[in-house]
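Minutes, project check-in
Item: structure for the 220-residue chain
Input as provided by the requester:
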Amino acid sequence: MINFLLTCDTYSVAVTALLVIVLLYWVFEVHYFARTLWCATMCRIMKKYVHILDTTSYSSACLTTDVDFLLFHMNNSRYLREVDFARTEFYTRTGLWAAIREKGGLPVQGGTSIRYRKFIRTFSLYSISSRIIYWDRESIYMEHRFVSRGDDFVNAIVHCRQRVINCDVEVLMGELLAKAAKESPGDLQEAPRMKPECPLEIHHWIQANLVSSANLRNGN
């Protein structure tokens, strides 16, 4: 490959590179993978570690690639795509991803519920606040809020169930909480942070998912 490039003129190399880029964009969604990698890298380099029960904030903007056919607000499907980047930041800064992989586990999306309150206009800025609100033995439940810059209005709220394969989440979260308490400076030692109570809306959402699963198993 190197010998081929050395024998080619500048024009041929440029055309080959362009064709490779076009092929990659045709086969893969390069922009998505690039943003995910950029987000994870910047979190490691530029942002500090936060407690597993803290809230992280991911900043973004509604661009022309995010709008629907009406052209003046974000497409509904883009909200969940943006949540992926916000979740990448949360997993990286809290050490959750590394802790799961250490145990041989893998998080997968087990369910999502989104409530739209007000559309996000094209070229407007917003942030996504992410936090863990509950967990059980199999899953982690997260909340993501789309917050407008300026008036702090919550445009949309997303609840996600992250099913963790091959890993006991109760043990995992217990270890992360114990580690955070141990690493706190002595003069800043705070009362140990405990597992939060299950929010009422999450309780009902879990029950609704159980009913849906039972219906599907019964062929309904």
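Outcome recorded: Residues 76-94 form the longest helix (19 residues).
No further action items on this chain.
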